[in-house]
Structure formats: structure tokens, C-alpha cells
Amino acid sequence: MQQWAANNQYNSFNPMKGLLYREQYEEIARGRVPVPVQARIDPTLKCPLACKWCNSAQYRKHGHELSEEHITNVLGFLKKWGVKAVVWAGGGEPTYHPQFEKLLNRNATLGMDAAILSNGMVYNPDVAKAIGELCRWVGISVDAGSAETYARDKGCATFDMVINNIALMAKHAKYKGIGYKFLITPTNQHEVYQACQIAYNIGAHDFIARPMDTHHQGMTNTGFDHKDFDADEIFRQFDKCHKLESEHFHVYTVMHKFNPDFSHSKGFGQCYGAPLRIHIATDGNVYFCDDQYYQEEYRIGSHYPDPAQILEFWGKGKHRELLYGGTPARCTTRCCVSNLCEQCERLFVNGDDPMCMNYP
Length: 360
Hints:
Layout: H1 22-29, E1 38-41, H2 57-60, H3 68-81, E2 85-88, H4 100-110, E3 113-118, H5 125-134, E4 137-141, H6 147-154, H7 159-171, E5 178-184, H8 192-201, E6 206-211, H9 231-242, E7 250-253, E8 277-280, E9 285-287, E10 299-302, H10 310-313, H11 317-324, H12 338-349
């Protein structure tokens, strides 16, 4: 099944991207945990939406928010440590942190790449412009192709504002990476192509669609099931979406982490991809991976009050136990780094060299 255009295979959604991390894979295979390539910083748990499928609903009730001072200290530590990029994300909406624009500019001053996962509800146009200008890529979770579906599923009538913000970000984008994201659920699955048309018409650079994880541990609404997807209809819409592709508009219908029936799959035995990222969570803790945050079982240490504390537990103790100890066997969540885990395991850990590394 087509996931992207043939002339656009070298993209950030292609699992081949993981091969850029050969040095990190080799370190992990030798039992040494590398400095992460990317940091995910969750500044706040505040969010104005009530998405029916929110996988942070279990955690947002805590209302945690990191201070500007602490995030600034975290950024300084990450730069000194050797982390290359920051993704602003969260169980909440990152732009709802009162000092978000200032922090985004601080990130740029330090010379680390920036990206953002956002719901697009940005009330200040200057913030929207800054996101376009300073972020290497932007993922705006719209998850609808009409104002009616958006309001019903997200509990807020701000569809037009979000669409306008995407257009504004695209207009001011330094990089051509402003993405209209569509998380496919049983309630919006009929609007995939409709949303893709909107993305094309407003000047977004990317349209990204993938199925939801219907059994994520962070959800409070457990009424979703992958059996409720109409796969044939969704794939038909995917085909139509790809017909809109051009040199300036890319479509990504991401299915390589899912089975054809939209259930998720894991093709690896160890979580070797997890340490390529570090999760700076809103409660002051660091968790083993982005998919298992706010769970004590996966807490490996704290970044608060001093981010330098990370060096005391990164690659040691519990972190090593989770990394090398068969963690996938008890993890039921869709893995956001499954491709990295599989590549490291099959190409570097197993030692059978199936791709003949030393032959071009």
C-alpha cells in the first residue's frame, strides 16, 4: 500500500530514516547508552480541548506545568549534553504555556532544532508566525475535515481558527514542513480525503494520516476498537489523497506500524530505540519512552530541580533494566519508535549483518 509518493521516499516518515542513527545503534549494541538525539519537552498539561480519543486524559487532571526558569535550565543542559533537537509537545497544549514564545526563541538561540506537536489553537498570531519561522517541522492535530466533526469530537468550535493558523504558519515557514495531522478514529474516518483537500487548499506542506491506538493506557474513553474501522473505505480515501500530491504538497498515509486491520504490531524484542529520545515530562520526571509516561513502572529519574541529575541515571540502573530487559512483552501501547527498535535489533544487536554493511 502506498504511504507516500515514489519521488518522495526520502522523508521523515520512512522507516529508513532510522539508519541515520547508526552510531547510536552501535553504542546500544555494545551495552552503552548514547546521548539522546532528541528531547521531547512537555511544558504544560493544560489544554482547551476534550478530544474523545485523548491519550493523555488520565494525566491532564494533575494540571502540572513547568516554570519558565526550569525549562530554560533544561534547554541549557540539553545543549551542553549534546542533544540535537527539541520537540515541544505534551499531555497538554505546549503553546498554552504562558512563556512558550520566549522559550521557543531561547531554543533557537541555543542552536538546537525545534519542532512542535500542537492542536493549533494559537490565539496570538505572533506565536503562530514564530512557530512557522523557527520550527523544522510542525504537526497540527486537526483530526477532522469539517467544523461539525471537529466540534463534536473535540468539544470546541475552533476549527476555522486552527485552519487559519496552519495557513499563517505555512506562509511564514522557513522550512516546508507545516503539517495538517489527521488521527483516524471510528468517528472521523469518513473525512480523511475531505481534510486532505482542505490541507491542500490552505497551503499546508504535508498531510499526515494514521490510525489511532484504540487501547492506549492514557485514555479515559475506552469505547474505541480497531474493529470499528472501515479499512476498505479508508484505503480508498488514501488513494484519492495521494492524487493531490505535488512538488509542494506531500501526503503521508502512515500504516507501517499497524496491521491491515488497524491493530498495532511490534516486530522487535527489546526497546532499543527508546534512548534515542528523552522525555522531559511536566511532573518533573523522566520516563523510559514517550508512550509510557506518568507511570511509575517506567519512571527512570527526575529532571527537577536540577536537569544535571539526568546524568546520574541515564544509561544506569532502572534505565538499563528497561532497555535490555524484555520490556515490550508487557507493553500493549503502539510504539512510536518501533522502527528504531527493530533496526537496532536486527542490524546491530543480532550480529548476522543481513544488509551486508561493509558492501556499498
